[in-house]
Specification:
Blueprint (H helix, E strand, L loop, with lengths): L11 H10 L7 E6 L5 E5 L11 H14 L8 E3 L2 H4 L13 E3 H11 L2 H12 L2 H14 L22 H14 L11 E4 L2 E4 L4 H4 L3 E9 L3 E10 L2 E10 L2 H20 L28 H6 L42 E8 L2 H15 L7 E9 L2 E11 L1 H13 L5 E3 L2
Antiparallel strand pairs: 1-2, 1-9, 3-4, 5-6, 7-8, 8-9, 10-12, 10-13, 11-12
Helix pairs in contact: 2-5, 4-5, 5-6
Length: 421
């Protein structure tokens, strides 16, 4: 099989620079997995390294639950707030040095309000210091197969070493629900009553998506607006992770589309490989989502320039969806019986190695330019004529978009096959 790269010796360095730069152009990363089987239902750049922001706190709480189950901590234990915890920036509960808070209230503050001060209070109790606890978090991540993840703090505040991926966060969320079902309710609470105040959960997916029952929001300038959500419909639980939205509203809207797409696929058994097998050896730095002119302070601290990030909206699934009473989606056909808008797929080629398929996808995105904003690119593992191959596809295109894709790709000398829905 011909290698997808066609590079002359003299331009090797430039081509390699291009390829190492391309991951930073990703507009978002996403994954949906079936919680029971652990299989991938849908993914886009799910192994790209990303700044997790406050999604970090899912690991902080996972380790808190583990300590409770082991008897090293109890829900009604009292924790004392250190000066370091009290100094944490927002979002926070407003804890003061020397103040006390129960373990359960600290958990609730983290799961509903994403309170950085409460997260540090838990970390210091479990690890002795936040930095020691961060080391424990990284070790736990490695044991769980979160190979793209490392942690420097318990909250997700900006740090170049605070890294994860959509795949890793889906693994973590699945483990939390599986290992601690008795405590998952803390991620489902829509409000937190504390000292005479009733504080609403910042995770609006709990109110905007009927089947959602948890998990966590996150935001920094580097990460963009992140979200993990879990939803259960007709006995099937899905976990969705979305990284890199450009507004809070966008992450909730597109997570709903992501979960809808996941339930559609799972209804017909369109499962991919186990999420544990979704691996990537690409260690390029995470993309910086929001430019310094939009997020001046922390963006400059992280080395962003005025041109970093992208502002194009995420479109998990083009067009408006219609939710039926039985929670299924309508598939429409055109008057001539052809596939309706959004049902066409462009196949870019099959490869023996996933890394070759990934490179093909990145090169196709580069060749397409602004046209790459539409549809969903992905790499799937297939079996054909007894051989396991990696197929590169671009899904959810209208017929005109698909034809335009192929015209552009063929003009660049790239393979392209149209597949009507």
């Amino acid at each position: 099989m011909k290698h997808p790269l066609n590079i002359k010796t003299g331009s090797l360095a430039g081509a390699l620079l291009l390829l190492t730069s391309l991951p930073a152009l990703a507009r978002y990363a996403a994954i949906v997995i079936d919680a029971d089987s652990g299989r991938v239902v849908h993914e886009v750049e799910a192994t790209h390294r990303w700044y997790p922001a406050s999604l970090t706190k899912v690991m902080t709480i996972y380790m808190t639950f583990a300590a409770i189950e082991a008897g090293r901590l109890h829900l009604h234990d009292t924790l004392t707030v250190s000066a370091h915890a009290a100094r944490q920036p927002s979002s926070k509960l407003g804890l003061r040095q020397g103040q006390t808070i129960s373990v359960e209230h600290a958990i609730m503050a983290v799961t509903t309000r994403s309170a950085n001060d409460a997260a540090v209070v838990l970390a210091e109790r479990l690890g002795g210091s936040e930095s020691q606890f961060a080391g424990m978090m990284t070790q736990q991540a490695q044991r769980m197969g979160m190979y793209n993840s490392s942690f420097q703090n318990a909250s997700g505040l900006p740090d170049e070493g605070q890294i994860s991926s959509a795949r890793d966060l889906a693994l973590l969320s699945s483990a939390l629900i599986r290992d601690f079902p008795q405590y998952y309710r803390y991620f489902s609470a829509t409000e937190f009553a504390y000292k005479g105040r009733v504080l609403p959960n910042t995770n609006k997916i709990l109110k905007t998506y009927p089947d959602a029952d948890g998990l966590k929001t996150g935001f920094t300038c580097g990460s963009g607006y992140n979200l993990i959500a879990s939803a259960k419909r007709n006995g099937r639980r899905l976990i969705g992770v979305l990284l890199g939205a450009h507004s809070s509203a966008e992450r909730f809207q597109q997570m709903a589309n992501l979960l809808d797409l996941g339930f559609e696929k799972s209804q017909v058994g369109a499962f991919g490989m186990p999420v544990t097998q979704l691996r990537d050896a690409n260690f390029a730095p995470p993309p910086f989502q929001l430019s310094s002119n939009r997020c001046a302070g922390s963006a400059e601290q992280m080395g962003a320039d005025s041109g970093s990030g992208r502002s194009e909206p995420i479109r998990i699934k083009p067009g408006k969806s219609t939710r039926l009473a039985d929670n299924r989606r309508v598939k429409t056909k055109s008057a001539k019986g052809g596939a309706a808008n959004g049902n066409w797929t462009v196949m870019l080629g099959d490869h023996r190695r996933k890394i070759d398929a990934d490179v093909n996808l990145k090169q196709a995105r580069y060749a397409l330019g602004t046209a790459a904003k539409t549809g969903q690119p992905h790499v799937v593992r297939i079996k054909t004529k007894g051989k396991l191959l990696w197929r590169t596809e671009w899904m959810n295109l209208s017929s005109s978009q698909a034809r335009d894709f192929c015209r552009k790709l063929r003009a660049k000398g790239r393979q392209c096959t149209l597949l009507p829905g």
